[in-house]
Write a structure and sequence with these properties.
Layout lengths: L2 H7 L7 H12 L22 H16 L12 E9 L19 E3 L8 E6 L5 E8 L8 E6 H7 L6 E10 L10
Parallel strand pairs: 1-5, 2-4
Antiparallel strand pairs: 1-6, 2-5, 3-4, 3-6
Helix pairs in contact: 1-2, 2-3
């Protein structure tokens, strides 16, 4: 599969990715003898004039699915549950919000919350909590992690030894700042 379908489906919910990737691949395939079969039974080589009949349907499916790939909406007071991890070795690197990362600041990374949002993170194992400001994107692990906290926040939560702990994340105040890469 080409990189075009892979890039186009990366922001979609997982259940729609195969369908959209297939649609994009079908749109991109030229009418040649090497083209894979479309919809399991037609190939552009065996039916040279028929591929154009599928394009409007594929475009319609893509437009409809694009509406399904929206960023979640959050509200003040909303509570999320999942896992938290921490990071701190990246001192000095630029965060997704554009500011320089300082592990001594009470900051965190979240996939979708607007930059500048203040959240209260509570370690569900010991009850310790800390208010942090979202200034980065992540975590990108394949488990139930919902937030990465800075080294300073991990100290307050007493989670450094464990590395990953179950947490409750309460939205205290949504941030006004949206970066150009926010979806």
């Amino acid at each position: 599969m080409s990189t075009l379908p892979a890039l186009a489906v990366s922001g979609l919910p997982a259940r729609f990715r195969p369908l959209v990737a297939h649609c994009l691949a079908c749109l991109a395939w030229p009418s040649s003898a090497t083209s894979p079969k479309i919809a399991g039974h037609l190939s552009p080589a065996s039916h040279p004039g028929r591929l154009h009949h599928f394009r409007p349907a594929f475009v319609l499916v893509l437009v409809l699915l694009a509406g399904c790939a929206t960023t979640p909406t959050y509200h003040d007071g909303e509570t999320l549950h999942g896992l938290a991890s921490w990071y701190g070795a990246e001192q000095g690197r630029q965060t997704a919000s554009g500011e320089e990362f300082d592990p001594r600041d009470l900051t965190a990374a979240h996939r979708h919350l607007p930059f500048g949002t203040i959240v209260r993170v509570t370690n569900r194992l010991n009850g310790d909590s800390v208010d942090v400001r979202i200034n980065d994107r992540g975590p990108f692990a394949d488990d139930d992690r919902i937030i990465d906290v800075s080294s300073a926040a991990a100290d307050v939560l007493q989670m450094k030894r464990a590395g990953v702990v179950p947490v409750e994340v309460e939205v205290i105040r949504l941030g006004p700042f949206r970066h150009r890469n926010d979806d």
